Structure formats: C-alpha cells, structure tokens
Amino acid sequence: MIRINRLRQLMKKNNLAGYFITDPYNLYYLTNFTGTTGAAIITMDQAFFITDFRYTTQAQKQAYEYTIIENKGHLFDAVTDLAEKENLANLAFEELHVSFAEYSILEEIIPCDLIPVSGLIEELREVKDEDEVAMIEKACEIADAGYKNVLEFIQPGMTEIEVANRLDFFMRSMGAAGVSFDTIVASGWRSAMPHGVASEKVIEKGDMITLDFGCYYKGYASDMTRTFAIGTPDSKLKEIYQIVLDAQLKVLKAAQPGVIGMQLDEIARDYIASLGYGENFGHSTGHGVGLEVHEAPAISMRSEQQLVVGNIVTDEPGIYIDGLGGVRIEDDLLITKEGNRLLTHSPKELIIL
Predict the structure, then answer these.
(1) Position 349 in a domain
(2) Is there a single domain that holds both residue 114 and residue 148?
(3) N or C: which terminal CB in the chain sees fewer CB atoms within 10 Å?
(4) Are residues 29 and 135 in the same domain?
(5) Looking at the domain assignment, is residue 225 inside a domain?
C-alpha cells in the first residue's frame, strides 16, 4: 500500500482522478503480479486489478491489495465500466505503452477524459527500498560469482558463445531467474564493439576480453562489466585499461546525493579526453538499475537529474579502438547518505590469465 499511496500523492499533484497501468514493469512494481496478462486502475480511494480466468487465483495471492476483476471480454470494456462506476473525471494512461490504435478505441468508448502520462511511476521506482536493494544486491552477488567462474574455465580455443552460455547457465544455477540482457563476450578486435554480443569468434592468446553481463533475481537486475586478458595483451591496451580504471574510480569517489548526472559523466569524459582518448569514449558513463536493467537516473552528458539516496546506478566508462580492442569496467552502486556503496565486488585490476 505504501507504493500505491506514493502514486496517489503524484496523482493528486497532477489532478489525475484515475491511473490506468499497463507497462509490465510498473505493473509488477505496484501489484507484485508476475503473470503475463493484467492491468490495473488506481483511483484516489480504490485499486483494481483486471485479468482473465487464467490468472485470477494468482492475482488474488500476489495483488492482494487490489480488488480483482475477472475480465471476460475486451480489456477496454472493463476499463470503461470501471470509469463509469467510479465516476472518474479523467483517466491517465501510459502513453509509451498504449498504441495510437488502442488509444483511438478507448477514446471512443470511455466516458471521461484520457490524459497521456509518462515517467510518474518510473520516478517512484528510482528510489529503492530495503527489499529492492536486497534483491539487486543478491543479483550482483550472483554476477560476481559468475565472473569468478569464468576466470576459472576460460581458455584459448573456446568461442565467445561457449563462454556466454556457460556463464548464463552458472548464474541460473546460483538462483538467477534469467539474464539481464544478451551476455556480451567481446574478445580481441571485437572488444572495440561496446555491445559486442557473444559470437562464434574463437578466443586467442593475447586477446583482451570484455564481459558485460548480469542477471535477474526475483524481478531485479544486476549489470557489471570486467575486461581481462588471456596471455599478454598489447601494450596500448594495457595503457587504456589503466586510464579507464582511473576514470571509473574518479566517478566512484564523486558519486553522492546531490551530484547531477552530467557532472559525474563529465568527470570520466574529461579525464579520458585529457589523455587523448575522448573520441574513443562514445557512450554515457552510467544509468539506473532496478526492475529494468536500463532505467533512470542517467549519468550522461544531457542528464540534469540529481542523484538521491536510494538510487542504484552504474559506473561504466570505456575506451574503444577499432582494429585493436577496447576496455570497459562497470560496477553497480547504491547512493547512500554517506556517499555510495558498491554492490559489485569483483576485482578491477587487470587480470592476465
């Protein structure tokens, strides 16, 4: 009920009589429902969860704070009936998750104003409570164990996809529900590709290898990156490794409540640029992590958002040189009253196997 009441405060501030929720992440955040078919309507004094026969029992157990409505027809008919019964003056809907065709149908039949909104529930999700922190911390713990496991089995002659598959399976064996995204294993020249999803490329001696991966644990994601070498890497790659590590540590030191996203991004970007690699760092320095592996707040050149206690963000500068390779180091960190606390703990010094 705490989350519902926090949303109601935002609804009151924005003069919203009702809120129609269809985004699956927002739906899970507010209802705890893990099924694939459902929607919610929250008013200032009621909360309704709409689903079909397949999920009514599940909804009663998970969305127990809601009045469960079994829908036997079109979802929008149930929404219209509720709007009429509750005498709603208006109904907010998530404009990024309702198509124009769906909007046109709903507008035709509903007896109140439809108000497109975005970002309100996502704003609530930015600040994690103790339970959410615990879930993300566990997802990070599994990722750390996965990295350690990779270092124990990886060797020249394996393909990137073999490494990714073994890593993914290991994380599942440790309790993960699945991976946060397609695991990135980029070796040799492919490590210059920031999002080089694992391929059939064979890992060779002397390759720098970038692993960017994470897992979901009870609905919450982790996201970490480490770069290491199999055999002695090119001296240039050793140089950029140290630069990236120094930049990453500078951001880590500065991350605290009140700091603006673009200020943290500038710390990493200016440092890397001062050493001649500004053109080789083309992505943002970080992003929020939670129910989605990429969410607000952003740590980027354009982010004017201040970090607050309870945010969980990544710190992930990188340098990429076409034809040679690249380096990225990424941690997840919790913003605290004292500054921040690392949630990923894998070693960051250059490991040469």
Answers:
(1) no
(2) no
(3) N
(4) no
(5) yes
Q: Calculate mean pLDDT across residues 251-262.
A: 98
SS (H, E, C) the chain: CHHHHHHHHHHHHCCCCEEEECCHHHHHHHHCCCCCCCEEEEECCCEEEEECHHHHHHHHHHCCCCEEEECCCCHHHHHHHHHHHCCCCEEEEECCCCCHHHHHHHHHHCCCEEEEECCHHHHHHCCCCHHHHHHHHHHHHHHHHHHHHHHHHCCCCCEHHHHHHHHHHHHHHCCCCEECCCCEEEEHHHHHCCCCECCCCECCCCEEEEEEECEEECCEECCEEEEEEECCCCHHHHHHHHHHHHHHHHHHHHCCCCCEHHHHHHHHHHHHHHCCCHHHCCCCCEEECCCCCCEEEEECCCCCCECCCCCEEEECCEEEECCCEEEECEEEEEEECCEEEECCCCCCCCCEC
Q: Which domain holds residue 144?
A: 130-342
Cα separation, 328 vs 343, in Å, equals 17
- Final residue of a domain: which of 125, 147, 171? 125
pLDDT digits (tens, 9 = 90+) for 41-96: 999 999 999 999 999 999 999 999 999 999 999 999 999 999 999 999 999 999 99
The pTM is what?
0.94
Instruction: For residue range 267-276, list pLDDT tens digits in order.
Output: 999 999 999 9
If asked whether residues 139 and 117 sit together in one domain, one would say no
Give the closest residue to 144 by CA, choosing from 335, 342, 353, 352. 342
Q: Which residues touch 131 (CB under 8 Å, ≥6 apart)?
A: none
Identify whether residues 36 and 114 lie together within a single domain: yes
Say if residues 93 and 117 touch (Cβ distance below 8 Å). Answer: yes
Six token digits for residue 59: 């909804």
pLDDT 10s digits, 283-312 = 999 999 999 999 999 999 999 999 999 999
Alpha carbons 96 and 99: distance in angstroms, whole number: 8
Radius of gyration of the chain from its Cα atoms, rounded to whole angstroms: 23
Are 226 and 204 contained in the same domain? yes
Tell me the one-letter amino acid at 280.
N
Q: Which among 71, 99, 125 is the end of a domain?
A: 125
The answer to whether residue 348 is domain-embedded is: no
